[in-house]
Amino acid sequence: MIESTHHIGTDRLALSAADVATLLNISTRHLWSLNSSGRLPRPIRFGRATRWRAEEIREWLAAGAPPRDRWEAGERRVRTGEPAKA
After folding, report:
1. Is there a contact between 22 and 10 (Cβ–Cβ < 8 Å)?
2. pLDDT of 40-60, one tens digit each?
3. Could you tell me what percent of the chain has a pLDDT over 90?
4. Residue, of 27 and 83, whose pLDDT is higher
5. Is the pTM above the cut of 0.90?
6. Of 16, 8, 27, nearest in space to 50 by CA
7. What angle do the packed helices 17-24 and 28-36 form, to 10 degrees?
8. Distance between the two ends of the chain, CA-based, in angstroms?
């Protein structure tokens, strides 16, 4: 189990639902609710395991935790170099 939220994701590339919930100080049930409603970055799947990229969660939080659609639109602009829409 995770002992401190300060170390979550610092040495791992991907975080479990329990790790992300601990990082956000919410329950895993609430995490899955946020994910279902499109309010978290899209997770990745490894077989039956669901994980979130640790770096993406940190960037998403630094950006103010926008909804998934805005987050993904902003990410595409950064990757392609498109200017932001007014």
Report:
1. no
2. 999 999 999 999 999 999 999
3. 71
4. 27
5. no
6. 16
7. 100
8. 45
Q: Indicate the pLDDT class of residue 11, thresholds 50, 70 and 90.
A: confident
What is the token pair recorded at 58? Answer: 């940190």
Nearest residue to 7 via CA among 45, 54, 50: 54
3-state secondary structure the chain: CCCCHHHCCCCCCEECHHHHHHHHCCCHHHHHHHHHCCCCCCCEEECCEEEEEHHHHHHHHHCCCCCHHHHHHHHHHHHHCCCCCC
The structure tokens listed for 7 are 């170390």
Nearest alpha-carbon partner for 35 in 55, 14, 57, 13: 57
